[in-house]
Specification:
CATH class: Alpha Beta
Bound molecules: manganese (II) ion
CATH superfamily: Ureohydrolase domain
CATH architecture: 3-Layer(aba) Sandwich
Low-confidence stretches: none
Structural class: alpha/beta
Radius of gyration: 17 Å
Strand content: 15-25%
Shape: globular
Mean pLDDT: 96
Largest sheet: 8 strands, parallel
Number of helices: 9
Number of strands: 10
Length: 291
C-alpha cells in the first residue's frame, strides 16, 4: 500500500544486494546551469514510469537484488565531498555493482579512485561527454567538473581511458590531449563512422578486463537530454549511448550518470537518465544469467 520513493524495483536490502543505487547530490563547482544536486531524486521519480520487465534483455528488474542506499551527505566543499565518496565506496560489500546518480560530473574521479582501491585492481575508464574535461583547474579549483577527465587520468590504477562524444574543449585542453595521447572520439566521428566502429577503436585503448563507465548526460544531444549543466548541440543519440552500455555493461564494475539539472527539465532528461540506468542493470543481469 505504501511505496518508498526510491529507485524503481530497488527494494532490496544491502545484504545480499547485487546492485546498489547511490545518490551523490553534489554541485558546488557548477559553471553554467546549477541544480544537479537535485538530480538523484529526479531520476528516482522518473524511474517509476517504467515497466520492471526489460524485454530486450528478458530481465525483470523486480527479480533482481537491487538496493537503493539513498543519497550521501556531501556538503558543499569539494575536498570533503571527494573524501566522503571514497569512504562510502570502501564500506560497500565486495563485488556489489554500484550505480551512482549525480550530481555534477566531478563525482566521477573519487568514485573511480575509490573503486580501484576497493577492488585492488586496475580499471579501464570509458567517459561519455561533450566536453574534454581536461583542465588542470577551473574556477580556482582542481576539483571542478571541468577537470573530471584530467583527474581521472591521474588516478593510479585507472590504467586506460577513452572518451566518446567530444565536441567542446579549450585550445589548451586540445594541446594537452595531443601531447598525452588521450584517446578521444568526437560526436562527429560517431555520426560519420557509427558508434560500433568508434567503440571498437576505443576498446583497443581500454585494455583492462574490468571497466568503469561514466556518463556525463551532456554527451547526448540537447534534443534528447536538454536539462544538463552545460548543454552542447550536435551530440550523441540515445541509441548511441544505449549501444555503448549494451556492449560494455558486462565488463563494468560500476556506472555513473551525472549533470542532470531538474530545474531545466520537463521530465525528458530525467526519464532518459533513469532509462539508461535501468538498461545498464538489465544488460549486466542478462550477462550474469549466462546469455
Ligand atoms: Mn563532464
Ligand atoms: Mn560535459
Amino acid at each position: 500500500m505504501f511505496q518508498k520513493c526510491g529507485f524503481a524495483d530497488a527494494s532490496g536490502e544491502l545484504e545480499g544486494a547485487d546492485y546498489v543505487v547511490i545518490g551523490l547530490p553534489f554541485d558546488s563547482t557548477t559553471s553554467f546551469r546549477s541544480g544537479s544536486r537535485d538530480g538523484p531524486n529526479a531520476i528516482r521519480l522518473a524511474s517509476l514510469n517504467f515497466e520492471s520487465y526489460e524485454r530486450d534483455c528478458d530481465v525483470d528488474l523486480a527479480d533482481l537484488n537491487i538496493c537503493d542506499l539513498g543519497n550521501m551527505e556531501l556538503g558543499s566543499d569539494p575536498a570533503y565531498a571527494w573524501a566522503t565518496i571514497k569512504e562510502g565506496i570502501a564500506l560497500l560489500p565486495d563485488n556489489v555493482v554500484p550505480v551512482f546518480l549525480g550530481g555534477e560530473h566531478s563525482i566521477a574521479p573519487p568514485i573511480i579512485g575509490g573503486l580501484v582501491q576497493k577492488r585492488h585492481s586496475e580499471l579501464g575508464v570509458l567517459v561519455l561527454d561533450a566536453h574534454m574535461d581536461l583542465r588542470e583547474e577551473y574556477g580556482c579549483t582542481r576539483f571542478s567538473h571541468a577537470c573530471t577527465s584530467r583527474r581521472i587520468l591521474e588516478i593510479e590504477g585507472a590504467r586506460s581511458y577513452a572518451s566518446i562524444g567530444i565536441r567542446s574543449g579549450s585550445k589548451e585542453e586540445h594541446s594537452f590531449a595531443a601531447e598525452n595521447g588521450a584517446c578521444l572520439f568526437t560526436s562527429r566521428e560517431v555520426r560519420e563512422m557509427g558508434i560500433d566502429s568508434v567503440l571498437d577503436a576505443a576498446l583497443e585503448s581500454l585494455s583492462c578486463e574490468q571497466l568503469y563507465i561514466s556518463l556525463d548526460l551532456d554527451a547526448l544531444d540537447p534534443a534528447y537530454a536538454p536539462a544538463v549543466g552545460n548543454p552542447e548541440p550536435f551530440g550523441l543519440t540515445p541509441w548511441d549511448v544505449k549501444r555503448v552500455i549494451e556492449r560494455l555493461a558486462t565488463r563494468a564494475v560500476g556506472f555513473d550518470i551525472s549533470e542532470l539539472t531538474p530545474a531545466y527539465d520537463r521530465g525528458e532528461t530525467a526519464l532518459m537518465a533513469a532509462s539508461l540506468a535501468r538498461w545498464f542493470i538489465a544488460v549486466k543481469a542478462r550477462g550474469n544469467k549466462g546469455y
